[in-house]
Amino acid sequence: MNTLPIVLACSLVVPAYQQVLPDLNCPKGSFRDNRTNSFQICTPAPEDINSIQVYACNTTHDAKYICKEGFFNADGAGQLVCQRCRSCEDLGLSVAKNCSAEQDAVCCSDEIVSEASSETAPTTAASSQNSTTFQNRTSSVDTIVTDKQTTNTAVTGLTCGRNTRLDTETNSCKQCDLCSYVDHDLHSQQTCDPCSEGTNYSNLVYCPKKCFIEEPSVAKVVISILLGTLSPFLCIPIAILIIPLINKSYKCHQ
């Protein structure tokens, strides 16, 4: 029996299955996690164009990626989401803390900086485990700057920074979810805008490509698993159907 048609048929069926759910293919490479004493899949390169690799994955450790200069990771310890650093100069403020790969810049007004150096000025600077807060009190306005966002507390309300929304119940600024954003500094917007095609890039924010990828449905996953299980058995009947056609075509050309 001529096995060439069977090989040709299988070569058509298997790639078709692999194309249904490419995300199910395991990424190449692994490393040994000493904490769990097990092999783990290497972290793939992030899709963020503003990220750089510190070192590659090998048998002893995972790969490490950080945001390049001028950007910081807005998602903390989670997925790398590089956002452009806040420009204090563009906001008319002074730099209290420079932007790094892990956090945004901290800005404060020149008035706060000058008064903070004076022992008699009505200005306080409080430090905590996670942030440093500069506060300047006047008769009608309080200006507060933290290393998470710049906020102005005035008689009229609170002003938040990029990628945060105003929570009126707690009178505080809340971080936007991963697939949503606010493309403004110093605003009072109460909801974050969802990431969508055509509006996911700006000077301040960046929406990851994964926000636009539709998650596979249960039906699609089930069908793909069935195709993967049955594809070797489907090769034979397909080959049986193709062989007569190939033989007929071959005889016609003799």
From TrEMBL:
InterPro entries: TNFR/NGFR_Cys_rich_reg. Disulfide bonds join 67-82. It comes from the Eukaryota. Residues 1-18 form the signal peptide. Residues 66-107 form the TNFR-Cys domain. TNFR-Cys repeats lie at residues 66-107. Gene3D superfamilies: Tumor Necrosis Factor Receptor, subunit A, domain 2. The keyword GTP-binding does not apply. SMART domains: TNFR. Keywords: Disulfide bond, Membrane, Receptor, Signal, Transmembrane, Transmembrane helix. The chain crosses the membrane at residues 221-246. This is Tumor necrosis factor receptor superfamily member 10C. It comes from Biomphalaria pfeifferi (Bloodfluke planorb). The lineage of its organism: Eukaryota, Metazoa, Spiralia, Lophotrochozoa, Mollusca.
